[in-house]
Write a structure and sequence with these properties.
alpha+beta, 2 domains, four-stranded antiparallel sheet, three-stranded mixed sheet, about 30% strand, signal, Carboxypeptidase regulatory-like domain-containing protein, Carb-bd-like_fold, carbohydrate binding
């Protein structure tokens, strides 16, 4: 049944404005929050000569909402490992802010394994290639532990 027929048929019992609001809510599409579209990424100054910055956002894979208070760090472990990775002590670490953003500043050029850990999500690792004088952006999309 179309909205026009429903409105015409029930206009005597239910206010038309309420029907239009209900129809609009039923037809609304679910979109990902703006944090995934890059607005949650923190602003950083240009890196020192010969170094780089890695900025990014951690957003839930199912909902797209930011993951707050998660640890983002470099590891010596491979990408194929299971469980939380061991963080490197010679590299910067970060904790995600309230918009899921993080910044790892002053990183030497090279190939690294970037790891994520949080109590509510499965651990996640990703290989990142860093070039000199670059600000590299990354989006991490971990899966919640209670999702199948």
């Amino acid at each position: 049944m179309t909205i026009a027929r429903l409105t015409a048929r029930r206009v005597g019992r239910v206010p038309r404005r309420l029907l239009l609001l209900a129809a609009a809510a039923a037809c609304r599409t679910v979109s990902l929050p703006a944090v995934v579209q890059g607005t949650g990424v923190p602003h950083v100054d240009p890196p020192p000569t010969g170094r780089a910055h890695i900025i990014g956002v951690v957003a839930d894979s199912a909902t797209g909402y930011p993951v707050v208070g998660a640890a983002v760090y470099f590891t010596r472990d491979s990408v194929l490992g299971t469980g939380p990775a061991r963080p490197r002590t010679d590299m910067p670490r970060a904790t995600t802010d309230r918009s899921g953003g993080f910044a790892l500043r002053d990183v030497a050029p090279g190939e690294y394994t970037l790891a994520f850990s949080d109590l509510d999500h499965f651990p996640l690792r990703e290989v990142v290639i860093v070039r000199a004088d670059q600000v590299r952006s990354v989006v991490l999309r971990p899966r919640r532990r209670d999702t199948p």
